[in-house]
Amino acid sequence: MAKYTKEQIEETRKYFLSQGFPLRDANVGRKDLSFFVLAPELNPELRNFAFVCVGDPLGEKVIGVSAEVPEQFQPYWAFHEATEYIDIGEEVKGRCLMALNRELNVLPIEFKPTYLPLRLQFFKDLVDYAKARPEKYSAEHVAEFEASRDYLNKLENNIRAGK
């Protein structure tokens, strides 16, 4: 993922505001987040997408979550992006799975039966989406997404098996 300039990040923020995309604030896992709820039409080929635009220094950011993601789950989608790209950093191998683990640790237990299958489907879709766009996603990106998909798949199988 490219690092964006402060100006590019501000232009993205202004564009989202000009389009009327709601800006939500949330506190997840003692982390204050602000993120935009984006129209699914911005990326119709990937359901339940997330968007992150980070700069240098990494504190500059714009995060977005598709309006297709159920409202109660949107802050956790945003938490994942902030954790992966700001707290952990893109240069760290295994960052997506690390962020997913942190995300699942702060997710309320009552959300898990509905959340986990939705998140698994998202990562399945993301792997296919990224593989179809090698000009945008490197093999390393795909491997990051596959690790999260595989972890969620294992978790789902264990739940079904009563483990």
Can I get a quick summary?
With 163 residues, the protein is of the alpha+beta class.
Overall description:
By secondary structure, the protein is α+β, with helices and mostly antiparallel strands. The chain has one domain. 50% of the residues lie in helices and 15% in strands. Strands 1-2-4-3 form a 4-stranded mixed β-sheet, sandwiched between helices. Helix 2 crosses helix 3, helix 3 runs parallel beside helix 5 and helix 4 runs antiparallel to helix 5. The longest helix is centred in the last third of the chain and has 22 residues.
Average predicted local confidence, pLDDT? 93
Number of strands: 4
How widely separated are the two ends?
37 Å
Q: Flag low-confidence runs.
A: none
Keyword list:
single chain; 163 residues; alpha+beta; four-stranded mixed sheet; 50% helix; 15% strand; globular
Layout of helices and strands, plus pairs?
Blueprint: H1 6-18, E1 23-28, E2 31-38, E3 50-54, E4 61-66, H2 74-88, H3 95-106, H4 112-131, H5 139-160
Parallel strand pairs: 2-4
Antiparallel strand pairs: 1-2, 3-4
Helix pairs in contact: 2-3, 3-5, 4-5
